[in-house]
Amino acid sequence: MGKAESGADESFSDGLLEYPQYTRPQAFEGRPIPEILLSGDHAKVAAWRKAEAEALTQARRPDLWAARRNQKATKSTTDG
Predict the structure, then answer these.
(1) Is this prediction's pTM over 0.90?
(2) Contact (Cβ atoms closer than 8 angstroms) between residue 16 and residue 57
(3) How many CB atoms lie within 10 A of CB 6?
(4) Fewer CB within 10 Å, N side or C side of the chain?
């Protein structure tokens, strides 16, 4: 990768699987693109992506989800 920031949103960069990717057309096989992604509100899109990544990780990789939760719990007890 050319820049250090390039890997920031990749799978496992934060211990999460990557969020779903959408493109055109706005509906594919009867499944529409979520409206939030069409809104242009970057903060809401980022929040949606994080929530999707968390949900996918929790459902598909409970081992990663548990490790991430443990890491956060350890960090919060050592920060305070």
Answers:
(1) no
(2) yes
(3) 10
(4) C
